[in-house]
Amino acid sequence: MREAWNVVWNAAGEGFRAAKGDGQFPALFFVGLAAIAFYKDKREKQYWYYGILTFVCLLFPPCVWVLTKYQTGFYGAASLWALLPATGMTAYGAVALLDMAEKAYGRQTGLMGRRHGRHVLAAMFCAVILLAGSLTPVSGAADRAVSGEKIPEAQRAALAWITEHVEDPYVWAPREVMEYARAYSGEIRLVYGRNMWEEALNANTYDVYAEECIFLYAWMEGQLAGAQEFSLENMELAVETAIQKGCNVLVLRAGDEWIEAEEACVKAMGYLESASAVGDYRILILTKGGAGK
Amino acid sequence: MKKKQTTWGDRVIIGFFVSICLAEGVHLAALAGKWEFHICAVIMGAAFLCLAAAGALFWGWKRRKAKAAQSALSAGREKPFPYSHPICFALILGLILFQVIWGHYMHQPYRKGDITIETVQTILASDTLYQTNPMTGMPFEAGMPSRLKILVLPTMYAAVCRWTGASPQAVLYEWAPTLVLLLSYLVYSRYACRLFPYDREKQCLFMLFVSVLYLFGTCSPFSDGFRALYAGFTGESIRALVILPYVLLACMEKKWLCAAAGALAELCLVWTLYGLGYSVLVMACIFAIQTAAAFWDKKRRGGMPA
């Protein structure tokens, strides 16, 4: 019983933390609700009641559990916070608070006089919203230079080169390139996709990856993580596996110390058609997986 | 019974919902008939044109009908909004414009847990619907869940790309978020009118706070501000920014048919519990609140001395 309660409690807590993020908007929402409670000219009480009801439900773990079951667990508890009329209710509460403050303040002088007092108060409320929120987005959302295609410049250059120089490209590349490949062009095929490292995306397909795909991913990411021994020891096996799968483009990071050894290995195996340096990457066109132009 | 008035804002939003439902119909037919995508896009385009023509005719007829009544009421009316509060209007417009420009040029879209762009690229490249794995570009081996196959959003985006020749990036990351953002402001402008009738200043303040909340509310991927500025192309964002607020408003105004249209649109965009979604939950909550309020009101009146 205690364990079940802990699970429910943790799920609700995680949902709240994820929905709150770095800001304090739930607190602002609560202030909005409280302001409306004291606002004599309030209309649409049902809106206010709905705000209270959803807020209480989303903070009360058993209700969160029921609602999560209602959405069959496909989405997390944080998604449930979409039910909260956060923006509308907070704005409503802010206007109510401003109106009440103005009425109370109307008899006094100061704060730039009666005429401009309301504007000063409105500006102060906007400042409160800024302090409770954020000017910058959550980390990871906009931290890289992007091109017109909304793809980081280094990756875009590599992908553009591949689509231009390789017919029917079947690509095996570092994760950061694979992540944007299918967003860049539907013509590019991949040895494995984003669902290899973003587990939540596995809900989009019943397909599962074969062992060799998982090995190729581990090899490539091991190489990225600097596991040189792992990288070089299994190089031949990895290239052979990729070729067997029909892969015709291999992308390596140009900055790696052992890139020359890797390229030499592919060449010695007889699979290298050409190699080009494109920005941060070294792109090897392989011969047996498909035809290069 | 008092007739419920629909504003032009209502009509635009309902038009949006009906467009989604119509696109869903074509999408389902294409899935069932295993049509090639270009056929689906043509039929979807024709359906949208018919809907637009029907909407324009209906709107024109309604306007003509209401013209006489309007001209009688227009005498002695207060100044229209932009002229009565020009500074506030300019401020709100400036903030909205900044958010649109932000969406077009300055942001990197948030794609975590979302494969809409890959799906659109796959549909366009393969000219088929959901026969290729969007994440790898290889044919499906075991397939994909039908609960996701029925969602129409990627097909709609791909159809827009096909009609206009625009890139999927432009449609998904620029056009769609702009449309969703503007529709969201339209919904909240209806809230402003509902919550502060005949008080232009408070309506302005309400809209100003909404735009400021969007601008500074990017602190979590689940916040409205973040959805508006970074992920406006996803079904969940459309639900959170347009559908749910509108359904809530429609329920408060007892426009149950409009609310039902929103619930249907949600079903077409976001996978829900086999047809029931958040909108149905909102409708049930508001209905319960209204029933309880009516019961309480009746009881209180009944208890009062004659």
Describe the protein's architecture and organization.
The complex is a heterodimer of chains A (293) and B (306). With 293 residues, chain A is of the alpha/beta class. Chain A is elongated, with a radius of gyration of 28 Å. In chain A, helix 5 packs antiparallel against helix 6 and helix 9 crosses helix 11. Chain A is built from twelve helices and five strands. In chain A, strand 4 and strand 5 form a beta hairpin. Chain A is 55% helix and 8% strand. By secondary structure, chain B is mostly helical. The interface between A and B is large, with 84 and 80 residues.
Question: What's the structural blueprint in terms of helices and strands?
Answer:
The complex is a heterodimer of chains A (293) and B (306).
Chain A: H1 2-20, H2 25-38, H3 45-59, H4 61-70, H5 86-105, H6 113-132, H7 153-165, E1 170-172, H8 175-184, E2 189-190, H9 211-224, H10 228-233, H11 235-244, E3 249-253, H12 259-268, E4 272-278, E5 281-286
Parallel strand pairs in A: 1-2, 1-3
Antiparallel strand pairs in A: 3-5, 4-5
Helix pairs in contact in A: 1-4, 2-5, 5-6, 7-8, 9-11
Chain B: H1 8-33, H2 37-74, H3 81-84, H4 86-106, H5 116-126, H6 146-149, H7 153-164, H8 168-195, H9 200-216, H10 224-230, H11 235-252, H12 256-269, H13 278-303
Features:
heterodimer, A: 293 residues, alpha/beta, 5 strands, 8% strand, elongated, B: 306 residues, mainly alpha, 13 helices, 74% helix, globular
